[in-house]
């Protein structure tokens, strides 16, 4: 069994090596004055997407193994939070790049476009996480449970009546996500992302981390495969291994996701997809891929709860840290403090993203997501993106402007979410009480 686990680790690491070699010969070694062939120049766009995509796949497995192994020494919620941050680090890098360009090119058309792209990329990533991530993983979990045992799935009387039950410990994340969502509705009112947004949103996430660090460690949590093998190491070696896996997988994802996203953008543009549409949807889809791969891996191991915890934790850190830190990057590039500006359409994008989050949270307050609810999330997301694509391409005559269309979809999400919150008001009150108890316990030390 040990040899089998060692072979698994070696195979996954080997998958990441080709792109690491490309990165070293194209970026690192030339900067050090070492003359080597630039392997990246020898790859076609399709080849670049394939090699970088495989490295992301391999790094995602290493990341998942590290997080599972770490659960022996730190609270599970904290291990998952670290996993979520590293998995969405590429999205941070892409958004930071646009925010930086907006500051450097302040006062120009290019700067204004970069600011809008930063917001578009951020809102696209957040909506993908729920519309495809939450919905898709729920459906995958239920489908998988038809042939494999998964205690998290209530099969009901049929497929449409099936539901995935969530761990009630995830209630803390749901409440903090609701707080961040509530604040997000206010962001467009100031005409930009400013220091107050940063203080509130980053403060929400820091408070959340402070609470989960107070959680209990469960060293007897059952694992199988590679995590079980790594947990058998003596503590110093185990901790060093986890840190090495986190560091290496994080590095691979960081250096591979940009060429992967840009390659997809080039392929999309070559077949007639508008660049702005690519940056809002295709690039975030690429940068979210490590996280979705990790969650599929966890669900496939019948760890549906851990998978959904990772998705919800990722949504929380994207909806807090990602938004809150954009103003810092923008101000540094600008050379002075300034709020990251955006136009009216991006204001509507933020409201739509907040409205989708509002509806998704309403679904989870009773700690389950049904197949019908997952399909609703997926259909609403796909239909909005598809109709917007038709509008952008002038393929259909639509009676609403882009701005009005986005507001109309926001209204749909808000109505659906409000109805669910009213119907589940007792569950919501119980969720608040449970979270208040968790917070009191964490800060009282009891």
Task: Report on the architecture of this protein.
The mean pLDDT is 85. With 446 residues, the protein is mainly α. The longest helix has 36 residues, at 109-144. It has helices spanning 2-31, 45-70, 76-87, 89-104, 109-144, 171-184, 195-212, 225-231, 235-270, 275-300, 304-334, 344-364, 371-392, 402-423, 425-444; strands spanning 153-154, 163-165, 192-193, 340-341, 368-370. Helix 4 packs antiparallel against helix 5, helix 9 packs antiparallel against helix 10 and helix 13 packs antiparallel against helix 14.
Provide a short characterization of the protein structure.
This protein is mainly α and 446 residues long. 76% of the residues lie in helices and 3% in strands. α3 packs across α11 (304-334), α4 (89-104) runs antiparallel to α10 and α5 runs antiparallel to α11.
**CATH overall fold name:** A middle domain of Talin 1
- Going by helix content, strand content and strand pairing, the class is mainly alpha
Number of domains: 1
The CATH architecture classification is Up-down Bundle
First-residue to last-residue Cα separation: 41 Å
Shape: globular
Number of strands: 5
Tally of helical segments: 15
CATH class membership: Mainly Alpha
Sheet with most strands: strand arrangement: 1-2-5
Order of helices and strands: HHHHHEEHEHHHHHEHEHHH
Average pLDDT number: 85
- Compute the CA-based radius of gyration: 22 Å
Largest sheet: 3 strands, antiparallel
Instruction: Estimate what percentage of residues fall within beta strands.
Output: under 5%
**Helix percentage:** over 70%
The CATH H-level superfamily is NCX, central ion-binding region
Contiguous uncertain segments of 5+ residues? none
């Amino acid at each position: 069994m040990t040899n089998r686990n060692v072979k698994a680790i070696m195979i996954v690491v080997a998958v990441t090596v080709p792109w690491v070699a490309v990165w070293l010969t194209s970026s690192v070694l030339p900067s050090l004055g070492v003359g080597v062939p630039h392997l990246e120049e020898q790859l076609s766009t399709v080849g670049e997407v394939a090699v970088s995509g495989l490295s992301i796949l391999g790094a995602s497995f290493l990341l998942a193994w590290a997080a599972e192994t770490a659960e022996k020494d730190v609270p599970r919620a904290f291990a998952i939070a670290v996993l979520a941050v590293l998995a969405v680090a590429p999205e941070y890098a892409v958004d930071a790049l646009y925010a930086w360009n907006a500051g450097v090119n302040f006062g120009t058309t290019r700067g204004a476009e970069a600011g809008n792209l930063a917001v578009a990329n951020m809102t696209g990533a957040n909506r993908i996480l729920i519309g495809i991530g939450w919905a898709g993983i729920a459906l995958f979990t239920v489908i998988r449970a038809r042939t494999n045992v998964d205690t998290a799935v209530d099969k009901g009387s049929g497929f449409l009546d099936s539901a995935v039950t969530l761990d009630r410990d995830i209630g803390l994340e749901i409440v903090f996500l609701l707080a961040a969502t509530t604040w997000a509705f206010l962001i467009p009112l100031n005409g930009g992302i400013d220091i107050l947004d940063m203080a509130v949103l980053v403060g929400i996430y820091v408070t959340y981390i402070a609470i989960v660090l107070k959680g209990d460690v469960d060293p007897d949590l059952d694992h199988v495969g590679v995590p079980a093998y790594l947990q058998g190491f003596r503590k110093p070696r185990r901790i060093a291994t986890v840190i090495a896996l986190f560091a290496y997988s994080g590095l691979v994802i960081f250096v591979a996701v940009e060429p992967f996203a840009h390659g997809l953008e080039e392929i999309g543009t070559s077949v007639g997809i508008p660049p702005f549409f690519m940056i809002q949807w295709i690039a975030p889809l690429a940068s979210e891929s490590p996280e979705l791969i990790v969650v599929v891996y966890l669900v496939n191991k019948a760890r549906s709860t851990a998978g959904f915890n990772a998705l919800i934790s990722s949504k929380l850190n994207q909806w807090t840290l990602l938004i809150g830190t954009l103003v810092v990057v923008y101000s540094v590039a600008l050379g002075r403090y300034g709020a990251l500006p955006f136009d009216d359409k991006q204001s509507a994008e933020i409201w739509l993203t907040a409205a989708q989050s509002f509806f998704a949270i309403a679904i989870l307050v009773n700690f389950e997501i049904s197949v019908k609810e997952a399909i609703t999330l997926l259909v609403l997301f796909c239909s909005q993106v598809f109709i917007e694509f038709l509008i952008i391409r002038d393929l259909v005559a639509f009676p609403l402007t882009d701005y009005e269309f986005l507001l109309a979809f926001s209204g749909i999400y808000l109505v659906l979410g409000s109805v669910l919150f009213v119907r589940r008001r007792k569950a919501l009150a119980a969720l608040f009480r449970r979270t208040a108890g968790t917070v009191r316990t964490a800060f009282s030390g009891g």
